[in-house]
User: Fold this.
Amino acid sequence: MTKEAISPGRGPSAVRRILGPAPLLGLLTGALACVLIERFFGQQVSDLLHLPKMPVLFGILTISKVVAGLVNALFKGAAFEGIELLQLPAAGVYFAVVYLLPLIGVGRITAGAANRAAAALARMPLPASALVHLGLMYVTLHVWAGMSDYRLITLNLTLIAVLFTLSLNIINGYMGEFSCSHPAFMAIGAYISSLFTVGLFVDDKVLGKALVAMPMDYLTFPLALILGGGAAAAGALIIAIPSFKTRGDYLAIISLAFLFIVKSLFENLQVLGGARGIAGQPDWATLPVIFAVVVLGIWIINNFVTSTLGKALNAVRDDETAAEAMTVNTRRVKMTAFLVGAFWAGVAGGLLAHVLRYINPAMFGVQKLAEVLAMVYFGGLNSVYGSIVGAVSISLLGEALRPLEILKWIFIPLLLILVMIYRPTGLVAFRDFDLRKAMGPRTDSRPKV
Amino acid sequence: MNLNFFMQNLINALQWGSFYALIALGYSMVYSILMLFNFAHGDIFMVGAYIGLGVSLVLLKIVGSGAAALVPGWVVLVATILISMFLTAFVGIIVERVGYRPLRDAPRASAAITGLMIGIILETSNILFLGGQRLAFPQLIESQTYNLGGVFITNKKIMIVLVSIGLMTTLHQFVTRSRWGMAMRAMAYDFVVVPLVGVPLNTIAVMTFAIGSALAAAAGILFGLAYPVLDPYMGVSFGWKAFVAAILGGRGSIMGACIAGFMLGFIEIMTVPGIQIVNRLFELNIGSNLRDLIAYSIVLAILVFRPHGLFGEPYSAKLRL
Amino acid sequence: MRKGLLLMVTLIGLGLALSPAAGAANDVIRLGFPIPLTGENPDVGASSKNAAEMYLKQVPTVVVAGKTYALKFVYEDNEFKAESAVKAITKLITEEEVLGVIGPQASAQAVPAGEVANNYATPMISPWSTNPNTTLNRPYVFRGCFLDPFQGPVAANFATEEFGAKKAAVLYDIASDYPKGLAEFFKQAFEKIHGPGAVVAFESFTTGDKDFSAQMANIVASGADILFTPQYYSEVPLIVRAAKENGFSKPIMGSDSWGSGDLMGLCGDDCKGLFFSTHYAAAGAQGATKAFIDQYSAAYGKTPDDVAALTWDSLGLMIQAIQNTGGLSGDIKADRTKVKDALAAIKDYPGITGKMTFTPEGDPIKCAVVVKINDQGQFAFHKSVCP
Assistant:
């Protein structure tokens, strides 16, 4: 089942066959049922299976822990109790009982009702229908993350990674450049938003006493994020303007040079804490806030890339000269793409700063670059689905394989190389994210709306 | 601020630039001929240094060291460089087979990602087999410092600069004079049509990677002599910076990469005394820590005024993305 | 489809039948170690783990108020990254239900992780983090090492008294917060003794730089009497060599970070005769310190670095505090607070790196020693300085 979880691109048809005619609404209901089952019976099930604890990340973590123990026992002669091997089937069974079977069961049973509901929703205005789906999704995530704070922090960081990956996909996927400066945009967003929140509302050693005391100061958080994003977008101008004259490879090193410059700048700005960074951001980036911001980001970016401007972006990627000849204002297109991409990267940075409640320049180096590039290209270019799949799977894999320690950094790169060889544009590349179609009913008799 | 001080920095910049130039050469060859970013190249440099470490330790064991040695240190050094270049070439060939050949028709960015991932695998395997701690590179030749009127030069610095220039000249001769070199240049000109007239693409690709990796190995060993602390991540920042140098040199210009490498080293080193001079002249207090900031701002400025690199030609139609 | 379902049901049945018997794990004290087992500095993680494993071998059980508990250590990789450190410590506290946490080591991970530990009211000792933010306003967070404001003046005074230095040069890594902090405190202290401008060269570089020749040229030109470089063991050999090659022949001195890792293996003869301030001197050590060094060298084939020694002491402090609680209730949340209170109340804990008492901030007060690297390449005791 891990295979299905990590590579939906490989067999969507197989997944569809098992899930039957359930629409998105039905699947979300099924997922909600799963997390409710886990919430109320998860402990009992894991006790019954004699698992030491309720598995946190769908049982993959449990499995990789046992595998790691086995590897250590084989190569380093560490102590290993054979009985632990039995946790392998137990974790699988847990996953099946708590997640897989309820999802399929509820999905199939409620398929009829869900399809009718989906059809009814489809007749309603799009925002209403979207809100129902999002509400269901949020409740599911909330219940799932509510069971353990470790799940919560993983989920928060994963959502931020989704936004960050998607914002890079605008430039590297839709526009077809190879931009390396995204960690720099994230850094700018993180620093400016922290400067705003820590500087104004928190007593801090580096930034001085709180300037403002407001009872509802957390309501200013969106403003902090917008400021962060705006500053990142302003920084993006430095990259966007040379991109008028050059593209591809030279842009790659311009952006790389920009990354080095920004990192060096933050290391040297003593007013921002230098290498020590800024700590003590207020605890405002909670799950609902992050969920709302990320959904908003996905929605706006999706609208952007499916708009005329987005199509112009693809035209620039495929042939700039031809696009210019077809009256595409390439300068405006490139500029907008960079600004939008950088803005959302900055917002993601602002969220990250307030989740970790600590930032330093070293966090935004070439390591982060390699990470986000991996997510974009693994998930798939030119596709909102792809960025979501890429960010979620790499984040979760990274977390679930944690017990493997050093071997994790052999396993994940190998997986990525295989994906690149067999699906060079990524798992779910070049697929449109059509909200109406995704949420619509799934009966073949009815023409798809 | 006198001439001595300037000369001292110039010599240091020459040595530092030779590493960038040697590594940038490998980048530039792959980039010119196959139009790929070989992001694993920085880590091949690291592997080359470690192979050099292993080879030199084995050789020292065979011939003995110190006064009891059978042959002088420089013989061991030359042997180490040659053997390691040969061995590391195979690493390059394997990287090409595994990471790049299956992706010949894929978007270029995908190949860049496999390169990045192969780099991570190389680093991780190093930690896996050798543990995380740093290793010392054996000093094969006795270090001697000459004081030329206040300018300090070591025999190693001279040797490093001479060996790198020698390697570069050899490569230049090979590329411009030999038949294989001609095939390479043809491939760099157009690698869709040129294979049709009978130039074997795969052989040229393998050769490109082998030569690039061998040069990286040489750079690794010279680096080990100058800065005798090896660590698994030593290639990362070198890799990215040499990448900048390679592209800055311009596509299709191998010598351009060399010059850009030396230039990058020069900019990085000279920024520090430059800041000092500015501080004295204008009574400012800028710290030498702004080195990266200023050095890469200069790179950025160069690219704004020469958007196709120092010696590259503008192109857009042939971009295979 | 039906076949698949059948297979699944069979598997579930099999799983239920074969599932392992629940092990009774009541009398266990679990301690968490969020340490960098991968990432840029795996040797820091390895040293911490070595010290902990050695401790566990020696002290497999502890007796708290007459009841014997087995010790169990949980190691979690923090990849030397802030994000990962936050996840790792959250996992240790909420999933592994550890009683206390030893680590993370470096400040870049210890500062955000300390926030998490404090929020969950779990005692945490960072053995190696020197950033004031790590323990600032966090009653549950402690550290095992002394802070830069103490070590800086130690080095400045030593340079003045031992070498009669009037002008000093400093070379440090601006991007790494430990060297940077210490460099600044040294500058402050030195200029307090010799007047403003006494630090004639204050040169910096960025993490990962290998070439220091440009900075060294500046330092030589500045005419400094001594070079202070609070860098890590992997950079010191390169700095010392750059000094030699650029014609700097004055003394060079450093800080405790010199003692992490295999300095002499990397530096060889170049480093002999140099001084640095640190937590303990390995050569000529006595008592518990000597026993620790001997055992560690025997087990892992190298002299313990300061990470290992500080981890050992932090672990000892934690165990001591657990014993001082006077009995654990079994309610992990209450017990964590009890341990924290006991930690804060410890007086003069006899650690191998000196006697330790925590200030209200959670920082230890302890003595520093200045060691000289002798001609055998050992770190020999030269002088002890107490606050």
